[in-house]
Inverse folding.
């Protein structure tokens, strides 16, 4: 047990009402069991509509946010915790909201000189013929995670269905140029880069099933790229973390092409902590056990 956390009452918030509820429950249970086994005073809490009242009654010292998507990641739960006066893991209200909103985060990245794929924004009344990004392209909802609602479109006949899929989750869709390259995710905790992982999936892309079904994806740590290029990739990821003013744990998802350019796809401010999640894999190779990783994330929230 870490001295900084001795005697602390820790709540693990998971579940929630978003499309990523099941993944969040898995993350929450993994974190809860880890802390319980390590001897901490910990409570697992499914974040329902009564969560504010329950948290007020609990008088917790800190909350580990294990929510994914929806108001768990968009700053809402963070705002509630600040009103109640409970420290929490991860980024603050503004950073969470901006990182969750793909369009807003793209503005921040562009203003700070970071490369992003060419894109355009569509509303749910946009005609298919209005799309200007050449095929193949990627169509995704503006504010979902875990690759929910994403489609790689190769033919014009697929656009309408892809947009309808994205609009199920959000009334704004992002259309991005498809960039062929290596998908590399960089893990950062407390402003320090732990390392990165190269994703190679048997599926068309690293979608929801590839992320959470065992055997669907190969994880290569460290990525099989030139060492100098990898250092550049890590520097770019850290800059993305910094310009969003992230705190605690984050995962920066990128596409790296042969010419050495690194394109930012998104920054996940509440990365998963399941058996197949990337940040724990990266941390393990960096020499951190799962327990140490969780402890570091909580301690960072109390600084």
């Amino acid at each position: 047990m870490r001295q900084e956390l001795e005697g602390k009452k820790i709540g693990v918030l998971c579940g929630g009402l978003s499309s990523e509820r099941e993944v969040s429950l898995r993350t929450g249970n993994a974190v809860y069991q880890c802390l319980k086994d390590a001897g901490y005073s910990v409570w697992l809490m499914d974040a329902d509509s009564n969560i504010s009242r329950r948290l007020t009654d609990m008088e917790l010292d800190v909350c580990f946010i294990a929510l994914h998507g929806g108001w768990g990641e968009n700053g809402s739960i963070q705002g509630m915790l600040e009103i109640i006066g409970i420290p929490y893991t991860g980024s603050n209200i503004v950073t969470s909201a901006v990182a969750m909103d793909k369009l807003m985060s793209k503005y921040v990245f562009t203003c700070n000189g970071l490369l992003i794929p060419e894109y355009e924004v569509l509303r749910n009344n946009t005609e298919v013929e209005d799309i200007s990004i050449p095929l193949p392209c990627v169509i995704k909802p503006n504010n979902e995670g875990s690759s929910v609602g994403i489609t790689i479109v190769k033919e014009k006949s697929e656009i309408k269905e892809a947009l309808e899929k994205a609009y199920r989750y959000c009334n704004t869709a992002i259309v991005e140029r498809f960039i062929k390259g290596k998908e590399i995710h960089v893990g950062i905790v407390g402003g320090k880069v732990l390392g990165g992982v190269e994703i190679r999936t048997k599926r068309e892309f690293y979608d929801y099933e590839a992320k959470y079904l065992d055997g669907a994806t190969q994880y290569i740590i460290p990525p099989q790229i030139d060492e100098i290029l990898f250092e550049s990739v890590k520097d770019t990821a850290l800059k993305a973390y910094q310009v969003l003013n992230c705190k605690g744990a984050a995962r920066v998802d990128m596409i790296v092409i042969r010419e050495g350019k690194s394109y930012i796809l998104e920054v996940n401010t509440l990365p998963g902590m399941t058996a197949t999640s990337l940040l724990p894999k990266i941390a393990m190779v960096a020499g951190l056990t799962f327990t140490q990783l969780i402890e570091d994330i909580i301690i960072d929230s109390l600084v």
